[in-house]
User: Which sequence fits this backbone?
């Protein structure tokens, strides 16, 4: 896979630098951990979707009157 070119806004860069010092972690590790968390959460959302409706369980039942 080709290398990705990712742009980080100045505020996020400042936060990365701050937490890097606070947590004694390099920014690459922190970005990797954040993306792993993001992927896990998105996979949960995708697995909750009903394949017939593209709605999550809660979205399906929210508008239903019983």
Assistant:
């Amino acid at each position: 896979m080709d290398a990705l070119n990712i742009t980080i806004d100045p505020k996020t860069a400042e936060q990365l630098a701050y937490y890097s010092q606070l947590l004694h972690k390099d920014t690459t590790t922190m970005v990797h951990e954040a993306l792993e968390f993001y992927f896990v959460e998105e996979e949960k959302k995708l697995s909750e979707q009903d394949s017939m409706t593209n709605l999550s369980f809660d979205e399906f039942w929210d508008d239903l009157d019983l």
About this structure: The mean pLDDT is 86. Helices lie at 10-23, 27-48, 57-62. The chain is about 65% helix and 0% strand. The CA atoms of residues 49 and 56 lie 4 Å apart.
